[in-house]
Design a protein that fits this description.
Layout (H helix, E strand, L loop, with lengths): L16 E6 L10 H15 L4 E6 L4 H12 L4 E7 L2 H10 L4 E7 L9 E5 L6 H11 L7 E4 L6 H15 L5 E3 L8 H17 L5 E3 L3 H4 L2 H10 L4 E3 L2 H5 L4 E4 L2 H17 L10 E2 L4 E5 H7 L5 H5 L3 E3 L2
Parallel strand pairs: 1-2, 1-3, 3-4, 4-5, 5-11, 6-7, 6-8, 8-9, 9-10, 12-13
Antiparallel strand pairs: 10-12
């Protein structure tokens, strides 16, 4: 069923698509396939019909997010804009329109950014302190735990201060290594930059590793999982997909659920009769600890029984 139709009064063709901006790369579309499928399922259910999803990827370039958001905000064919891939996507979309309906898939706060916006609060970077606590439980003898960071992330300085407070409480030192890809870097160049950063921890014999929550790392999680496994680094990540990609542990909300709910919201708005301001920002309250036991075996890491017993899922591959 097509949603493209004409106004009875004017004969004007009404908007027929939902636009998507994503911080990741179209080349890595398979990497995000599960989340996009979940979003489309929610979109179809909310709209009670099939809806055309216009996908646009920024290739890890924040300024490209702005251009994509502007194009969709100005398109007469697009009635709802979905901002996916982190808070930066939502921020860029907000800056480009105060009237177009915007639904975000994952932001850090329940506060509605603007009346034309709603979506999902998934608590990503706010859980980095909890991830640090789980690393200390994993390897209680570690005095130093490395942190892979993206200093360009929104509100990074505030989040880093909180992480350092947790480190002080846990009596561990947390040195950071920033990942700053060259301007307009290709995906391979970004992954090379990430590997160089991880190599600096290896050179300093710093283990284990906290890969802090960030869309940049999520967009390259397969490579990061491969690197940490090859370099024999026990690491914890934000999404279960990292553990599925070979990382040792992950702790955070279910990203597919966030996308499905965002799609459902977008579908309801697309159908008509509901505004973003009518829909509360949904805060995901369930967080999963996922442990990859195959990776633990390959790393030679023994998972403490109490930590293993607290896992919500255990992977063997």
């Amino acid at each position: 069923m097509s949603m493209r139709k004409k106004s009875r009064k004017s004969g004007r063709v009404l908007a027929s698509k939902v636009g998507l901006i994503h911080s990741g790369s179209d080349d890595a579309r398979q990497l995000h396939a599960k989340q996009i499928k979940a979003l489309e399922e929610g979109l179809k259910f909310g709209a009670e019909a099939n809806v055309t999803l216009d996908r646009n990827y920024a290739d890890d370039k924040p300024d490209e997010l702005t251009r994509l958001a502007r194009n969709l905000a100005n398109s007469v064919d697009v009635t709802v804009l979905i901002a996916a891939g982190g808070s930066e996507s939502a921020r860029r979309a907000q800056a480009e329109s105060t009237t177009k309906s915007i639904v975000f898939t994952s932001v850090a706060t329940k506060n509605r950014p603007a009346n034309n916006m709603t979506g999902i609060c998934a608590r990503t970077s706010e859980l980095d302190s909890t991830r640090l606590e789980k690393l200390v439980k994993l390897m209680p003898g570690s005095a130093t735990i490395g942190a892979l960071t993206n200093p360009k992330r929104s509100n990074f300085s505030t989040q880093w201060v909180e992480l350092q407070r947790t480190a002080t409480r846990l009596n561990v030192t947390v040195p950071q290594v920033d990942v700053i890809p060259p301007p307009n870097a290709a995906p391979r160049e970004i992954e090379d930059t990430i590997e160089q950063a991880i190599n600096s921890f290896v050179a300093g014999n710093v283990k284990p590793l906290l890969v802090t929550a960030d869309p940049l790392f999520n967009n390259h999680r397969d490579k990061i999982g491969e690197i940490t496994l090859r370099k024999k680094i026990p690491a914890i990540f934000q999404w279960r997909e990292f553990a599925e990609a070979g990382g040792l542990m992950s702790y955070g909300p279910n990203l597919a659920v966030a996308y499905k709910l965002a799609g459902y919201y977008a579908g309801r708005i697309f159908k008509g009769g509901i505004l973003p301001s009518d829909l509360d920002v949904l805060e995901l309250a369930s967080f999963d600890l996922v442990i990859n036991l195959k990776t633990a075996k390959e790393l030679g890491v023994r998972i403490p029984p109490d930590l293993l017993a607290s896992a919500d899922d255990v992977l063997f591959s």
